[in-house]
Amino acid sequence: MNGQPLIQVSDFEGPLDLLLHLIKTNEMDIYDIRISTITSQYLTYLHQMQLVRLDVAGEYFVMAANLMAIKAKLLLPKPQSVVPVDEDEPADPREELVNQLLEYQRYKQAAQALKQRALERQQHFTRPAMAVPESVELTVAPGIKPVDLQTALVRLMQRATLAKPVTQSVHQEHFTIKRQMTTILQRLKGTTAPVAFEQLLVTHPVMEEVVTTFLAVLELARQRQVQLQQAGRLAPLQVNFLQMEGRFSTDVTSSTD
């Protein structure tokens, strides 16, 4: 092969992938491709593929024709003419091929980055959802069922979604059940009347705050520190602080985050 490196037969994702491999093997600058060398090695590789596999994709032959056309344009002498050259035609016949290779290289690098993230994600294991123990009973008004609480949560989540601005700055929120329990107890201790669940939230709550606050209310109800009331199926959820000193602890340090 006149001193050229031997190209081993292997599978490539397409002709552009093969060209990038040849350019990297020959340590060429992608902006200054030696078309004569690349075309010769490309045709040699294509011939090897035909010997091993007869069903070579037609796109490889199309690229071979393009390479030979570019090679022919580079070998032809430049005409000495006073006729103005068409500005739409690139000055370098390799320009279009270089642009295709650069775009393909960007997509290939992005695919490799996503693949690496997928491999890293496989190292994490998510705990499956756990059923609520049968021994846990919520302190709610008679007639209120878990589906009613779920309906109230869905309605609040829809309100939070509609309240989101069209454009917003993305930043990490830090809401924990323990912190929300403390905030709720401080809010309820200041009044003797029941407080609507919506009043425990800020004016424009984010989804993380709504969900965490709802879980904090359920945890406080489980500990019998608050009582949940609802006049009807679609009525607002009311939270009332159980002021029973000496019987129920208001310490939330042992609660789950």
TrEMBL record:
Subcellular location: Cytoplasm
Keyword Phosphoprotein assigned: no
Keyword annotations: Cell cycle, Cell division, Chromosome partition, Cytoplasm
Cellular component, GO, one term: cytoplasm
Membrane-crossing residue ranges in chain numbering: none
Recorded superkingdom: Bacteria
Primary localization class, coarse: cytoplasm
GO biological process, one term: chromosome segregation
Pfam family, one: SMC_ScpA
Subunit structure: Component of a cohesin-like complex composed of ScpA, ScpB and the Smc homodimer, in which ScpA and ScpB bind to the head domain of Smc. The presence of the three proteins is required for the association of the complex with DNA.
Main function: Participates in chromosomal partition during cell division. May act via the formation of a condensin-like complex containing Smc and ScpB that pull DNA away from mid-cell into both cell halves.
Family designation: Belongs to the ScpA family.
Name of the protein in question: Segregation and condensation protein A
Recorded name of the encoding gene: scpA
